[in-house]
Amino acid sequence: MWLLLLVPALLAAVLSCLRLVRAAATADLLTGSARSHPVDPVGVGLYETAYLAGGPVRVVELALVLMTGRGRLHLAHTGWTSVVDPHGRSRLERALIAAIGPEGQCRTGELRDRLATHPIVLEIGGRLVQAGLATPPLVREHTALAVRQVRQALLLSAALLAAALAVAAPGTGDAGSAVAWFSLPIILTSGTLLMARVDVHPYTHWATPAGQDLLKAARLPHQAGPSEPSPGLPDAAERELLTAVAVVGPAALPDARLRAALRN
């Protein structure tokens, strides 16, 4: 009886591990191709740092915090964003104001999702991908999905082993045989996950290993400002706050009401 439970466990383990190996090989190929075609050096400023740390959504959150701090937007803790100054100082700010709409007010969550797919935001990621600093989005998504599937196969094998032990006839040795056979998919998936921590895990981040090194140095005071023109560089206190938001996210904000506004 327990043999019927072993078949899906073995199939799930083998297929998920093969899928992860293929995803890792594709990631190596694509990221290696990006590094072999260098483009002009990319200036890594606050927006680029935000992309490497949290992707397009983090870039939008940084822009919202920057514009709110400079009095151009009002973020309400009720989940609404209102335009205070309709004149954007950069392409990203102008795109954000345009995304809010002619009424000058919209839901913050909808604005964040809408602007995260805007060409100006995706252009930041594209430059970083070409420079070998950011993982291509499709590579990151496929690799993360493959890792999740292997993890699910491991949990499935453990659950089916428990079911097999429950139905095994006592005193017949079936329990020992079930444990021995089910150890195969369990060892296969757990071993694959351990190897993935070294070989595959970097591809599940927005930043490549080279980009991760840049993130570690993101708090250096001589780091360049945003890549888009801005009316004057921020002072030291503002730059420290914006850098923390870029690297950590809204959780770095000391203002609880502003954190709540971005969560909404």
Number of helices: 10
Structure summary, number of beta strands: 3
Structural class by secondary-structure content: mainly alpha
Rg measurement, Å: 24 Å
Mean pLDDT: 85
Cα shape: elongated
Protein name: TIGR04222 domain-containing membrane protein
Transmembrane segments: 153-172, 178-196
Keywords: Membrane, Transmembrane, Transmembrane helix
Fold topology:
Elements: H1 2-35, H2 46-69, E1 73-75, E2 80-83, H3 91-100, E3 105-107, H4 108-116, H5 119-130, H6 137-167, H7 174-199, H8 209-216, H9 236-248, H10 256-263
Structure, described:
It comes from Kitasatospora sp. CMC57. The chain crosses the membrane at residues 153-172, 178-196. This is TIGR04222 domain-containing membrane protein. InterPro entries: Ser/Gly_Cys_C_dom. The protein is mainly alpha-helical and 264 residues long. It has helices at residues 2-35, 46-69, 91-100, 108-116, 119-130, 137-167, 174-199, 209-216, 236-248, 256-263; strands at 73-75, 80-83, 105-107. Helix content is 66%, strand content 4%. Helix 1 (2-35) packs parallel to helix 7 (174-199) and helix 6 packs antiparallel against helix 7. It is elongated and about 80 Å long. The model is unreliable at 36-41 and 220-233 (pLDDT under 50).
Task: Identify the notable features of this structure and list them briefly.
10 helices, elongated, 264 residues, 3 strands, mainly alpha, 4% strand, 3-stranded antiparallel beta sheet
